[in-house]
Inverse folding.
């Protein structure tokens, strides 16, 4: 690669795409054109990959997910192509600032939280290790939403991430697929057999857009995303009659399917749209795979599971199971038993939650009219399941009802996922055990061999090599580059934990990373932050079980103590939050407002001598996370024990040298096993203790309120205008929900008050250790050294060998 060649290719692209010359192009145009040039490095390998796999008779795996939180492509792709240094050097010689070009790329609006980021990490790991894993999902036009904080409140705006187009995607309109909604099912009998035909349906066209998944010195796999279009576009007759809005009604109705990730579903139309989304991408993806099978393998569908494995990422794509049955029964004319055998050998299901409300259930009144034939198949699956249960558990009718897929007017999608799959996995050791012993105990007893654990991981290419280049360079200088593809190599760093020179360099890198975050906070929040303060960070989806509220209560406690003249020797602390709440989640949005109202009080109170600062960074996404993780000192992983399935943010903090303060929940358990409890701050009730308290109904939040004067003082501040004079009484709802319950739930369902004192004391331990910088840095280095288990490379290899059977 030479400067003159890159300059020529950039110039050609700029002229063709924008009619611009190199000197007159803006950053966005340079980004687009540079991305096009870089695509030339992988396009041939990408085009040949899937075809070569079919030629070689290789089995391939497909990851069905409603989210793929990919982040920006440019920086990640040049790192994985191993051309980063060359590109940056050549651009520098051309007087082009690479960082400015990179920052002009919008984060892909294809995901929201850990579910989507895990999917992205898995794709990266598979491509890096030459595993044929491809993704299927939806090409959301506006993502979830762009979060703005206005007067302390979350306000949602469209995230128009495709405004300037996307240089990484290839539209494959010739491979479009028709999806059928609604109508009715006609039954015809031929030669004594029933044949089902869907009639009077609405057609929506699924148009595929392919994105490259570039592995680090590996292969290039494919992420295929579907966009929805109407086959009729618009009604010209209506338009000519002056009914301009109505002429576009069908087009808008179709395009709404791929417009927004997780549309608000606290009303009927929102629920209906979510179901349309799930069926849309599931059906399109399955039809696409059937088409590939027929083209490359043949028509003997008994061989389908020998060539295709499908992983269902949580319940969103579980409708794929009855949809695949529909295709095999109605389109391919297979018998039920043969089709069901093929289904069960093809699908695997990942459960990502312990929360009952997240175990997706669909009202039959919504599902049946929208997907009439699919519903008929679910009825038959349920009927046969009940027969099997009667054989194994004769006359245990309550157990049968508890395990039924159809019950009380609802379809239990998690149960359907278990029944129709060959494998059911949790995503952390504790999570899997809770599923087996509690939440899905009946199913585990029925299918013990199906259940297994695959502890989550993160890709070190994105979360260390890219986001923390200085630390990456230090690591490589000491132990070589092997860790980039084999994270367990980091274990070699343990011997440097007491090395004075290494610790000094390590600390200096952390400090420079903190300065980068300080600069970002100043530019975006207008707030001056002390880089010498402890950066205490909680970044994740805003949900009550993640207990951002407990974090806020401790901040208020520390503030109250300072105001009383106590705790004046505490090390300065900067509390950093970043999170989106679901648009219809009222309590979560109220917690965001509380964080910002507390920040306004504390950040403007000169009497506490800048001992505490509170920052809420709006619009959390991958690119922001890449700045935050390397700068963090403390990783807040404080969910109610037994509620967090795994977590992956905890791993990203760990790999960047932050110390965990957390409960023994999710993957925290395994993190502590690796690094040792002495190198983390563990507090709170265990999942077993919480289970017993719930079982015996022995937790009374009012007792905590009455016996703890400091906690009572904090809770009482939620009433009236003590925290926010502009919106008096706005936080009284939080007070009531903790002590009396809200929306039909029990008081303090996530044990915030019960765990508060234990959390507060753990935070005092954080302060004590940080004052001993030599000991703190040693613990930070050990956290990096012991993070090797938590690579998605390890996880994806386990999926490949133990579930999908791909090579």
């Amino acid at each position: 690669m030479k400067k003159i060649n890159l300059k020529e290719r950039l110039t050609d692209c700029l002229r063709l795409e924008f009619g611009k010359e190199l000197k007159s192009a803006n950053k966005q145009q340079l980004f687009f054109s540079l991305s096009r040039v870089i695509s030339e490095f992988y396009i041939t390998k990408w085009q040949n990959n899937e075809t070569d796999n079919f030629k070689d008779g290789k089995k391939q795996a497909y990851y069905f997910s409603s989210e793929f939180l990919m982040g920006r492509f440019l920086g990640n792709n040049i790192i994985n192509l191993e051309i980063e240094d060359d590109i940056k050097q050549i651009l520098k010689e051309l007087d082009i600032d690479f960082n400015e070009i990179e920052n002009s790329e919008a984060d892909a609006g294809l995901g929201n939280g850990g579910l989507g980021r895990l999917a992205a990490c898995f794709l990266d790991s598979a491509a890096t290790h030459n595993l044929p894993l491809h993704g299927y999902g939806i090409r959301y036009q506006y993502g979830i939403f762009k979060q703005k904080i206005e007067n302390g409140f979350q306000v949602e705006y469209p995230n128009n991430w495709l405004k300037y187009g996307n240089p990484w995607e290839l539209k494959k309109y010739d491979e479009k697929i028709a999806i059928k909604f609604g109508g009715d099912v006609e039954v015809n009998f031929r030669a004594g057999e029933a044949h089902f035909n869907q009639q009077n349906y609405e057609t929506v066209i699924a148009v595929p857009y392919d994105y490259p998944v570039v592995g680090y010195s590996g292969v290039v796999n494919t992420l295929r995303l579907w966009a929805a279009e109407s086959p009729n576009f618009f009604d010209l007759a209506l338009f000519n009659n002056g009914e301009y809005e109505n002429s576009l009604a069908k087009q808008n109705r179709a395009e709404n399917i791929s417009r927004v990730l997780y549309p608000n579903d606290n009303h009927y139309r929102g629920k209906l749209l979510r179901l349309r989304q799930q069926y849309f991408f599931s059906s399109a993806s399955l039809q696409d795979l059937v088409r590939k099978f027929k083209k490359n393998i043949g028509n003997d569908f008994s061989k389908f599971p020998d060539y295709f494995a499908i992983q269902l990422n949580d319940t969103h794509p579980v409708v794929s199971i009855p949809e695949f049955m529909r295709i095999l029964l109605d389109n391919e004319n297979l018998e039920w038993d043969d089709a069901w055998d093929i289904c069960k050998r093809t699908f695997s299901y990942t459960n990502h939650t312990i929360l009952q409300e997240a175990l997706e259930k669909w009202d039959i009144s919504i599902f049946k009219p929208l997907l009439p034939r699919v519903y008929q198949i679910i009825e038959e699956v349920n009927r046969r399941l009940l027969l099997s249960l009667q054989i194994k558990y004769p006359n245990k009718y309550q157990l049968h009802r508890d395990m039924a897929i159809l019950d009380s007017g609802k379809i239990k999608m998690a149960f359907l996922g278990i029944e129709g799959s060959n494998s059911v996995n949790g995503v952390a050791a504790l999570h899997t055990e809770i599923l087996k012993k509690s939440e899905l105990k009946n199913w585990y007893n029925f299918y013990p061999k199906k259940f297994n654990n695959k502890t989550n991981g993160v890709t070190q290419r994105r979360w260390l090599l890219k986001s923390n280049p200085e630390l990456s360079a230090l690591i490589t200088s000491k132990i070589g580059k092997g860790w980039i593809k084999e994270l367990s190599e980091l274990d070699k760093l343990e011997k440097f934990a007491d090395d004075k020179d290494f610790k000094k360099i390590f600390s200096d890198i952390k400090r420079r990373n903190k300065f980068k975050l300080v600069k970002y906070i100043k530019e975006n929040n207008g707030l001056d932050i002390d880089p010498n303060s402890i950066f205490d960070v909680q970044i994740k989806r805003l949900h009550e079980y993640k207990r951002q509220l407990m974090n806020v209560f401790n901040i208020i406690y520390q503030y109250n103590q300072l105001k009383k003249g106590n705790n004046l020797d505490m090390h300065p602390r900067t509390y950093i939050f970043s999170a989106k709440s679901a648009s219809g989640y009222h309590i979560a949005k109220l917690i965001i407002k509380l964080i910002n109202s507390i920040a306004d009080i504390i950040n403007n109170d000169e009497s506490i001598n800048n001992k505490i600062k509170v920052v809420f960074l709006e619009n959390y996404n991958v690119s922001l996370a890449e700045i935050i993780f390397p700068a963090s000192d403390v990783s807040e992983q404080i969910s109610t024990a037994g509620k967090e399935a795994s977590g992956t943010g905890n791993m990203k903090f760990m790999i960047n040298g932050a110390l965990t303060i957390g409960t023994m929940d999710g993957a925290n358990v395994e993190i502590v096993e690796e690094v040792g409890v002495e190198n983390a701050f563990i507090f709170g009730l265990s999942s077993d203790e919480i289970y017993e308290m719930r079982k015996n109904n022995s937790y009374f939040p009012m007792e905590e309120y009455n016996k703890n004067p400091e906690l009572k003082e904090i809770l009482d501040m939620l009433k009236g205008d003590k925290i926010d004079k502009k919106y008096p009484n706005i936080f009284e709802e939080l007070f009531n929900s903790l002590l009396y319950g809200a929306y039909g739930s029990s008081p303090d369902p996530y044990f915030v008050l019960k765990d508060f004192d234990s959390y507060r004391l753990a935070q005092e331990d954080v302060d004590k250790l940080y004052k001993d910088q030599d000991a703190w840095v040693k613990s930070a280095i050990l956290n990096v050294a012991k993070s090797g288990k938590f690579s998605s490379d390890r996880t994806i290899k386990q999926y490949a060998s133990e579930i999908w059977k791909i090579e």
Observations:
- The CA atoms of residues 254 and 715 lie 48 Å apart.
- The first strand starts at residue 60 and ends at 64.
- The domain at 61-71+107-455 is CATH 3.40.50.2000 (Rossmann fold).
